[in-house]
Amino acid sequence: MSFDVDAVRAQFPALKSGSARFDAPGGTQTPQPVIDAIADALANPLANRGVTTEGERNAEAVVTGARRALADLLGADPRGIVFGRSSTQLAYDLSRTLAKNWVPGDEVVVSRLDHDSNIRPWIQAAKTVGAAVRWADFDPATGELTTDNIAQVLSARTRLVAVTAASNLIGTRPDIPAVADLVHRAGALLHVDAVHYASHAAVDLPGLGADFLVCSPYKFLGPHLGVLASRPELLETLRPDKLLPSTDAVPERFELGTLPYELLAGARAAVDFLAGLAPGTDGTRRERLLAAFEAIETHEDALRARIEQGLAALGSVTVHSRAARRTPTLLLTLADRSATAASRYLAERGVDAPAGSFYALEASRRLGLGDGGGLRIGLAPYNSAEDVDRLLHALAGFFGTSPATG
Description:
This protein is of the alpha/beta class. The protein has helices at residues 5-9, 32-43, 54-74, 87-99, 120-129, 147-151, 176-185, 205-208, 232-235, 261-275, 285-314, 339-348, 361-366, 385-399, and strands spanning 20-21, 81-84, 107-111, 132-136, 158-164, 189-193, 212-215, 226-230, 318-319, 329-333, 351-352, 355-356, 374-378. The longest helix is centred in the C-terminal third of the chain and has 30 residues, at 285-314. The mean pLDDT is 96.
């Protein structure tokens, strides 16, 4: 299936700035249909959800439409879709709720591969009730986190395992279905951070085996928002802290205060935009999303290979993204040169590639990079071969060598 990157790029006003953007893991640019959906929601009557006034009905339609869209994206039940300010906020809320049922001697497993938002909330929740924390390691030489790494820290007292579906720092994609099988056989729950994963691959909540999964629409062309997906029957068993007058229905019992209707409208539009990236594909929105992500993966993997070929020719670069299955996200260190200096040099030449550890502190430290991390190159559907060549040319200039492209 062909992927018309020029047609895709034409729908992103921010790309008119002229920069070649490799900062997508920190947040993607926004296509015009998403911008229009947000503006339209604000331009029309809005009120608290209901059925009486036009504003109430508009708000209800926005929320219902957004739940259905995110359920299609994640292969989930709309009744199991919870909205929040961010995936970090949702992890904190969920960790506090689950910890109500933990006791001293219980155990929680976190991974050194993860973003801190899937580590610190669980550690802090465990501490409040006297539960122990066990760490699943990964191999810094390969970037792999395996089922053996998880199995080594499971026990009969494990209550929850928190692990990423894709590292936002080095792109590693652990075998989540196999991890889920281990976790469930131990009698524990599995919380999966899919914030980075959902930007690059089709998510199937039942297929992954996750009990809880979080993602963020602003990482896949939408607005700033957090989404948690779970089984409605599992959510029914949980009693979060909430205001007395607020509904006790699922999933609303987990949503604190009035939802940001305009952002939900934008999130739905982002899902619809993604579903349209495989022109000529018929079927349900879910079926079109599956076809679109297949096309996106093919496009992004080709660009990643082009980058890796060019980096190999530079010689003075260490690529820490080495897992067999990974997203198009590369973390580099640059011989005796500073990643921050490289990022600044690139930015001055219209190439946006940030430096740092990007909240994946444990992973950066395990790689021997301290808190400083490296230079991260991340792809999005709107990146082109021309962007890649600009990146490689600028990196070659940083090292004072000739680029290898094509």
